[in-house]
Amino acid sequence: MKKILFITGDFAEDYETMVPFQMLEMVGYTVHAVCPDKKKGDKIKTAIHDFEGDQTYTEKPGHLFQLNYSFKDVKEADYDGLFLVGGRAPEYLRLNPRIIEITKHFFEKNKPVAAVCHGIQILTAANLVKGRKLTAYPAVKPEVILAGGKFLDVQPTETVVDGNLATSPAWPGHASLIREFLKLLGTKISL
User: Fold this and answer.
1) Pairing outcome for strands 160-162 and 165-168
2) In this predicted model, what pLDDT tens digit does every residue of 44-77 receive, in sequence order?
3) Active-site pick, 32, 49, 117, 174
4) Domains of the chain
5) Has 117 been annotated as catalytic?
6) 32, 35, 49, 118: which one is catalytic?
7) In what order do the strands lie in the sheet with 12-13?
8) Is residue 174 among the annotated active site residues?
């Protein structure tokens, strides 16, 4: 059974945590949801980001999400893929040297990586986007460009794939992001 490492944290976007986690489990993956300095059974607070016609998203309290694995026990070599959630969590997660080390492993080994919204900030902090085509929440565009990536402005429902990396601007892209991530993982779903 394939295993996915799922990195999240306090004030990650609610949908970008709950929905991909459940979708990946639904198709049969073991998904280890982790956060630095937290252990299995701990909870994180999420935030709901919505698009209501303002110049940027609105933010409201989300649900509590229970982690199912301890961050200190992560051995990145044990995982087949990496999922990086969005929201505000990546702002501080990218400052954690262990998060950067883990993320780099997946690129060094050419393992599938999916990142949504602000999750791409972890990739820019790890210096992993140079020369790559990707997308993110529009406010992250300057970071991607400064880090040497080729930012693609796509609809929120779309996903950009470049090699082992699948990215989407926000939670409306879950269907396409998970579909492309599953393809990278070699998963085939028959209807």
Assistant:
1) antiparallel
2) 999 999 888 988 888 999 999 999 999 999 999 9
3) 117
4) 3-185 (3.40.50.880)
5) yes
6) 118
7) 12-13, 43-50, 58-66
8) no
